[in-house]
Design brief:
alpha/beta; Rna Polymerase Sigma Factor, Chain: A; 15% strand; globular; binds NADP nicotinamide-adenine-dinucleotide phosphate
Length: 383
């Protein structure tokens, strides 16, 4: 039985991962789980999966959990250091399903311990992809993409020669506002931004999908996951979200990966890799779907995609600055403090102001992240 730690077990990906683990009865032993605020759900997960350790990022909630917990656990670790302690435990696979830059240090800790990791938390690769992949190579650990787009590419190019790939094409649904008149962007409501047309996900990624920042982040993550030139990573709008990605080879053949919009399909593939295990998933019936449409993204209307591409190409600490600005701006939008288009306006302003693009060591990245958070907060206060 393989031992698994799930960081972010109370989130959308974390919960789906636990569902898949339950389905794969006898194949995985859950030894570690982590939450930030949702300690109630964590307690239920502990009762069901009997891990050895848990980590709770929110210290106050963690203290309360510790005081009231009646079961038996070998360790309850608190705060972001606690999440890192859990990530450093030696297991067969660590799932990084945290959100934003919170996943970076735990991911590095897991790699340092020699654990293979499955990452849905793409921001880790956005802010420090080069360093993360370098450390993974050094420790000889595998990094699996737990995102439907990257997992599709992974399935196609596994065992293929990289020089035979002409390009990879990430599909984007376009989110809820792709056809909305851009003059109406300022009056977009939070609840509308949180209703994605095809996927059910955590609130931060749902807003990132609506601005298309998520797709820009996926471009950067694809660069590091697959070690591709920037020119070989393309994006196409595909509102039905049935084709998850395409890979075009030099001979003109294009492979597309199609499936229902259910992250458990991706998670199951990664957990059971290199095997394919029968699942109780909805299969797609193309005759019912009728048509699949594709179009070029409108980067004038959705500048976040372009901002991410530029930050990725600039490299160094620029992607970390963009990510941190975006995290602060999305939080402000979700709290009703800024409007929807102000998300990318704040990010654009900070990218213009940032000119200290130093080498991309982890301390550099953390400094840039902190700077951008402060700048973004101060810009937002003045808006
Ligand atoms: N959801 C999807 O379908 C999907 C698909 C592809 C990729 N992804 C990526 O996967 C990642 C997770 O997405 P999600 O939708 O699962 O997010 P989510 O539902 O918001 O879950 C995030 C998880 O991280 C925990 N967390 C939040 N802030 C934290 C912090 N500062 N320190 C430690 N833990 C923290 C949360 O704990 P509490 O809930 O206990 O507060 C929760 O367990 C994101 O990077 C996203 O882009 C998601």
């Amino acid at each position: 039985m393989k031992e698994i730690i799930i960081l972010g077990s109370t989130g959308s990906i974390g919960k789906s991962t636990l569902e898949v683990v339950s389905e794969l009865r006898g194949q995985f032993k859950v030894v570690g789980l982590s939450a930030c605020e949702n300690t109630r759900l964590l307690a239920r997960q502990v009762r069901k999966f009997h891990p050895k350790w848990v980590a709770i990022a929110d210290k106050e909630k963690g203290e309360r959990f510790k005081k009231n917990f009646r079961g038996s656990l070998d360790g309850i670790f608190l705060g972001s250091e606690g999440v890192r302690t859990l990530a450093g435990k030696k297991v067969d696979l660590t799932v990084i399903a945290l959100v934003g830059s919170a996943g970076l240090l735990p991911a590095l800790e897991a790699i340092e311990s020699g654990n293979d990791i499955a990452i849905s938390n793409k921001e880790v690769l956005v802010i420090a992809g080069k360093e993360v992949m370098k450390q993974a190579k050094k420790q000889n650990v595998k990094i699996f993409p737990l995102d439907s787009e990257h997992c599709s590419i992974f399935q196609v190019i596994d065992n293929q020669k990289k020089k035979e790939i002409r390009k990879v094409i990430l599909t984007a649904s376009g989110g809820p506002f792709y056809n909305c008149d851009k003059n109406k962007f300022s009056s977009i409501k939070i609840r509308d931004a949180l209703s994605h047309p095809t996927w059910k996900m955590g609130s931060k990624i749902t807003v990132d999908c609506a601005t298309l920042m998520n797709k820009g982040f996926e471009v950067i993550a694809a660069k590091w996951f697959f070690d591709l030139d920037w020119d070989k990573i393309d994006v196409i709008i595909h509102p039905q979200s049935i084709v998850h990605s395409l890979v075009e080879f030099v001979d003109g053949t294009v492979f597309a990966v199609l499936s229902d919009t259910d992250m458990k399909i991706t998670i199951k593939y990664i957990l059971t890799y290199p095997n394919r295990i029968k699942g109780s998933f909805k299969t797609i019936d193309l005759s019912k779907i009728g048509k699949l449409t594709f179009s070029r993204p409108d980067e004038g209307k959705f500048p976040a995609l372009k901002l991410a591409r530029l930050a990725g190409r600039a490299g160094g600490t620029k992607p970390a600055v963009l990510n941190a600005s975006n995290e602060i701006a999305v939080k402000a939008f979700l709290e009703g403090r800024i409007s929807f288009p102000q998300i990318w306006k704040v990010c654009g302003l900070i990218m213009k102001r940032y000119n200290l693009n130093t080498a991309q060591t982890i301390p550099d990245v953390l400094r840039a992240d902190e700077w951008a958070r402060m700048e973004a907060s101060s810009i937002i206060e003045k808006l």
